[in-house]
Amino acid sequence: MKRLLSKFGFYASVFVLVSPAVLVFLWMISLSLKNELDNTAFPPVFIPSPPTFANYLDVFEKNNFALYLWNSILVTGGAVLVGLAVGVPAGYGIARGKAHKFAILILVARMTPALSYLIPLFLLFQITGLVGTVTALVITHLVITIPIIVWIMIGYFENVPMELEDAARIDGASTWQAFRHVALPLARPGIVVGGILAFIFSWNNFIFSVVLGGKASRTLPSAVYNSLTFEQISWGPLAAAALLVTLPVLLLTVLAQREIVAGLSAGGLKDG
Question: How far is Cα 207 from Cα 215, in angstroms, rounded to an integer?
Answer without folding.
Answer: 15
